[in-house]
Amino acid sequence: MTTPADCPIVDQIDKQLHDDRRWHLDKRIPVAILITLLFQTMGFVWVVAKMSAQIDTNTRDIARLTTLVEVQNSNVSSNTTSIAVISTGMMNITEALRRIEGAVEKE
Predict the structure, then answer these.
(1) Highest-pLDDT range among 22-26, 75-79, 89-93
(2) With CB atoms 3.0 to 4.6 Å apart as the test, which of 2, 18, 46, 68 could cross-link to 6 if both were Cys?
(3) Per-residue pLDDT tens digits for 52-76
(4) What are residue 27's phi and psi, to 5 degrees?
(5) Beta carbons of 77 and 83 less than 8 angstroms apart
């Protein structure tokens, strides 16, 4: 009498169960699908690399533009001060002209 372990059918079923648990590539998968997956993966890597380069460029541009905005804000502040000084000077000149005009009219 044979035991279940000695039976060739049991051995074949055990082998199939063991093989089914592991990942394997079936020969029925067309080469075209494998090539398509390879190209899609390469395309994905290319897109990610391109995006990374664009992000680096944008980061540098943002830093440069931030510096330019700070310089412009400094110039605006300086111009505001200059305008205030000029405005004060104009008021003083206007007042002096009124005094001169008043003195001329009295004569």
Answers:
(1) 89-93
(2) 2
(3) 999 999 999 999 999 999 999 888 8
(4) -70, -10
(5) no
